[in-house]
Amino acid sequence: MSKVSGVKGMNDILPGDVEVWQHVERTARELFGRFGYGEVRTPMVEDTALFVRSVGETTDIVGKEMYTFEDKGGRSLSLRPEGTAPAARAYIEHSILNQEPITRWFYMGPMFRYERMKTGRYRQFHQIGAEGYGSKEPAQDVEMMDMVVQLLQKLGLTDVSLNINSLGDDACRPGYQNRLVEYLRAHSSELCADCQVRLEKNPLRVLDCKNERCQQIANAAPNITESLCEPCRAHFAEVQRKLDVLGIKYVVNSRIMRGLDYYTRTTFEFIASHPALGTASTVGGGGRYDKLVKSLGGPDVPAVGFGLGLDRLCLLLKESGQQFSPPVDLFIAAADEGSADVAFGLVSRMRREGLRVEFDTRGGSLKSQMKRADKTGARFTLVLGQNERESGQAQLKPMAGGDAIPVRLEDLASTVREALARPSAPPAS
Ligand code: HAM
């Protein structure tokens, strides 16, 4: 029979890897909680118009990469390509501003973009993101960056640099746009077909085109930071000062345009320099979007946020060689058929007592069970036979070698726990 394969660009995450994912998720949840962020879960499918109106019609994400379909009621729906717009929709829909002036949310989950695949770039990928509503102050921008910096530090991912930029606002962006259009017009015949359209409809998006020639042209384009109005310049300067206050290192990089239309003022990206990511080196990005909530029909609320690529973080973490699977504490083997049920009962009891216990449900010879014990990397084994059953006494054997520990079956859990706590305990393999 022909086999059915998974969808291209959508990955299975198997045990062995999933522990790395859980570690990152757990670390982020715990850390973001300390910053006062609550978890929000929005649906994976939204009205297509939400993304068209927020991320922007002429962006690659909306123009080329969305999974859009009609449901049975004839509505145009899309798998979410990102989390900011859905969170803003929920924020508006639940009138959150009426309940609190400042809101801090985080989320994690799959996002979907029909992108050309390579290492670190997938069609179903996962983000950990956060959004803060209600403060236009630079401290809020810096709190966001601090949160990412602390997360990366906790994960031991230190080779990541923070790049920041400011995209200005309604007062100064149009002036910059005019300068940009003037510059791009002089090169228009060299731009790709998409950028010819972008030049007319949304010239900023030419700056994040992936076409090589367009990128060369973009690299020599006028800098947006030179066109900032006084309030935007002051905001950006204060963001930098506050980063200095926290001792966070950064570089100002006026090429951080971000590829989504909703940004105003601060934008930032965290860029890793590890070969495991190839060219997919941006592990996260974000920025301020003070106009988005209002443009989606909500109140006039400033906001700032970020999204981290969980797949990419996990690729980096796997490279770091850290061990995330918890070790098996104990393997229990039955020496003969008659001991199988007692062993089975003991396994169940030890698990109830909180130990990580392995057991071969297939039974089989003691030799094959011990082979299995070796495979599991269990730190101790206990063999249960007729003698042990009758005497209620057994031997706890450290798998790494060393003296066996006599144990009363009644006290097995506490003896294993004590043995594990000793400095001489066998290491987790
Ligand atoms: P973004 O830059 O489009 O921003 O995505 C954030 C991160 O998601 C990227 O830096 C990257 O690590 C990861 N990512 C994006 N596309 C893929 C892909 N195809 N495969 C693997 N990883 C990917 C946003 O989505 C904004 N919503 C961030 C934000 C939140 N801005 C304000 N608030």
TrEMBL record:
Major localisation: cytoplasm
CDD domains linked to this entry: HisRS-like_core, HisRS_anticodon
UniProt KW keywords: Aminoacyl-tRNA synthetase, ATP-binding, Cytoplasm, Ligase, Nucleotide-binding, Protein biosynthesis
Family: Belongs to the class-II aminoacyl-tRNA synthetase family.
Residues noted as binding L-histidine in the record, renumbered to the chain: E82, G83, T84, R113, Q127, E131, R258, Y262, Y263
Protein's name according to its UniProt entry: Histidine--tRNA ligase
Reactions listed under catalytic activity: tRNA(His) + L-histidine + ATP = L-histidyl-tRNA(His) + AMP + diphosphate + H(+)
Coiled-coil regions listed: none
Gene3D superfamilies: Anticodon-binding domain, Bira Bifunctional Protein, Domain 2
One MF annotation (Gene Ontology) recorded for this entry: histidine-tRNA ligase activity
Protein localization: Cytoplasm
GO biological process: histidyl-tRNA aminoacylation
InterPro entries according to UniProt: aa-tRNA-synth_II (IPR006195), aa-tRNA-synth_II/BPL/LPL (IPR045864), Anticodon-bd (IPR004154), Anticodon-bd_dom_sf (IPR036621), His-tRNA-ligase (IPR015807), HisRS-like_core (IPR041715), HisRS/HisZ (IPR004516), HisRS_anticodon (IPR033656)
PANTHER family on file: HISTIDINE--TRNA LIGASE, MITOCHONDRIAL-RELATED, HISTIDYL-TRNA SYNTHETASE
Pfam families linked to this entry: HGTP_anticodon (PF03129), tRNA-synt_His (PF13393)
Record's GO cellular component terms: cytoplasm
Self-association state and partner proteins as the record states: Homodimer.
Gene that produces this protein: hisS
Keyword DNA-binding attached: no
Residue ranges annotated for the Aminoacyl-transfer RNA synthetases class-II family profile domain, each copy included: 1-326
Protein's organism: Archangium gephyra
EC number: 6.1.1.21
